[in-house]
Amino acid sequence: ETVAVVAKSTRFRQDGQVDGCNGVNDPQAWPSVFEERNNCIQATPIHPHGHAFPIPVTLDLADWTCILKEGDICLGVHIPAVGGMEHGDCGASFAAAIPFFSRHFPELEIKAFTCTSWLLDNQFCAILPPRSNIVRFLREWYLAPNPGGSDAQALDRIFGGPIADLDAAPQGTSLQRAVIAHMKAGKRCRDSAAFFFPHDLPWGHEAYRKDC
Q1: Do residues 41 and 58 touch, judged by C-beta distance below 8 A?
Q2: Alpha-helical runs (H) found in 105-203
Q3: pLDDT in tens, 78-103
């Protein structure tokens, strides 16, 4: 089992996103906690779907091991603006990355893959078909709220920029239609942070969603 916790004080909205995400502040925002004592860590947990919980979790260090912390070496994942995202090809890329870096940079101990992208917005699971490449891709990751999260990147990539009139926005693709319907319901897209551990390969097992 993998559990992510917030390592420093952060204010979260009631929806579990960082206060100020998309320029929206919550008067009922609450602060995260992190305390280590008596061989235990009590901290604010992050759900794999990408939101924080207000109730702290207590982890006994006799049973839990820290496998990723600030300063560890990670491989940053870039998703090109153009090109396909066929699920098997994505998995092959991840599988090839670790042997490549082990061969050419043997001094580096790669702890995780990390990524921040509009494609990792867990809301896509509710508005796109479950077998879509976007949904299948994001479900492989352990998602986390992005302190600077906004819909700017999503609108730029999907529509070419901000939308002044929802009714006049392009709706030539299923993704555009889904996002417009999402926005007409009063919701907004947001980019998300995420990590994925090499030991959770092979790709396709949705290691962080087995129980949720």
Answers
A1: yes
A2: 124-127, 133-138, 152-159, 174-184
A3: 998 888 889 999 999 999 999 999 99
